[in-house]
Amino acid sequence: MPVELIKEYIGKQVSIFVEGELGGFVGTIVSVEGNWLKVDEPKKYIRLVNGDMITQIRILK
């Protein structure tokens, strides 16, 4: 997944699907460093995601 595209959506709520997981998760992209995304999941925790493992990102309205 090209990190440059993801930087456009910092601060937006998204649904992210990662290779090897059965379902995705919802959160807000906080930052992008190198090939890693920092995602804030509501009322849960902060998740760090490797950009190479992302198969799909949906931008929620």
Defining key terms:
61 residues, mainly beta, 8% helix, 5 strands, 1 helix, 5-stranded antiparallel sheet
Per DSSP, the total helix count is 1
Q: How much is the radius of gyration in Å?
A: 10 Å
Q: Which strand order do you get reading across the main beta sheet?
A: 4-3-2-1-5
Shape descriptor: globular
The major pleated sheet works out as: 5 strands, antiparallel
Fraction in helix: under 10%
Written as H for each helix and E for each strand, in order along the chain, the element string is HEEEEE
State which percent range the strand residues make up. Answer: over 45%
* Low-confidence segments: none
The class by helix and strand makeup works out as: mainly beta
Distance between the termini: 21 Å
* Mean pLDDT over the residues: 91
User: How many beta strands in the DSSP annotation?
Assistant: 5
Could you characterize what this model shows?
With 61 residues, the protein is mainly beta. The chain has one helix and five strands. The chain has one helix at residues 3-7, and strands spanning 13-18, 25-33, 36-40, 46-50, 54-59. It has a five-stranded antiparallel sheet. Strand 3 and strand 4 (46-50) form a beta hairpin. The longest helix is centred in the N-terminal third of the chain and has 5 residues, at 3-7. The radius of gyration is 10 Å and the shape is globular. The mean pLDDT is 91.
